[in-house]
Design brief:
The protein is an alpha+beta fold. Helices cover about 20% and strands about 35% of the residues. It has a single domain, classed as 2,3-Dihydroxybiphenyl 1,2-Dioxygenase, domain 1. The chain is globular and about 55 Å long. The relative contact order is 0.20. The mean pLDDT is about 95. The chain binds fe (ii) ion (FE2). The site of fe (ii) ion has 6 residues, from strand 5 and strand 11.
Length: about 280
Amino acid sequence: MSKYHEYPLSYPANLKLKVMDLDRSVKFYTEVLGLTVIEAGKEYLLSADLKNPLIILERPINPIAKPPHTTGLYHYAIKLPSRLDLGKFINHVKDKDVEIVGGANHGVSEAFYFEDNEGNGIEIYADTDEKNWFVDGKLRMVTDPLDYRGLMSLADGDIWNKIPEDTVLGHMHLHVDNLEKNAKFYELLGFEKTLELPNSAYFYSQGRYHHHIGFNVWNGRGIPAPPENAIGLDYYTIKVSTEEKLSDLENKLKANDYLVEKKPEGIFTKDPAGNKVLLII
Ligand SMILES: [Fe+2]
């Protein structure tokens, strides 16, 4: 397990996608990512550890394509336990019918980008040694070429059967309408800014992780949220450390006029860009 994705931090734990073609999506997530269906009903729950869902899929009523220039998912990022696992995955996916976007060495991580069968952005990555992430207190994130040859030869002969069970949802990266407004929301949830690309993108974390949440204005400023029945991100879940912490967040959200909707599974809220967040303990 990643120490940046466990108690006492708050961190993204899973996400739900609204899909057009449930059968094709389940096939993609089981065959390409190697997740396992642990519950199949109206919602399909897909898991790495056979206990906790990582991805939840559902076909909404009358689904429509996500309109361009709206907020929502830029990508979600799956963190693998090791560099070897990343090499195995790249070897596995290269011959599949998958839309590959590219790869990068970010200094803090090595990352490979692709899309699912309905165009949702996915990053799959492995962290580098954390002792090199911050230099003089500043996060050092870069975009250098990914060492495909090194990764693929490291994993040569290894087969990707299933996603490793200690895989986690490493971070979420969202399209927003306004950086400052959304910064206030994520700061209220207890995240701290680790990196700012002025007028472009902000990165936030807890416990000095490089980032648990990123958001950008690359889809445009002042853009609306997509309609409720548009495919794409429905919500993502943030796991909060304790009952007290959750009720403290509930009070703070209410006091600041953010949406608070209590449901059996937890508290639903929305960031100012309309990205839905489920808070659970
Ligand atoms: Fe990312």
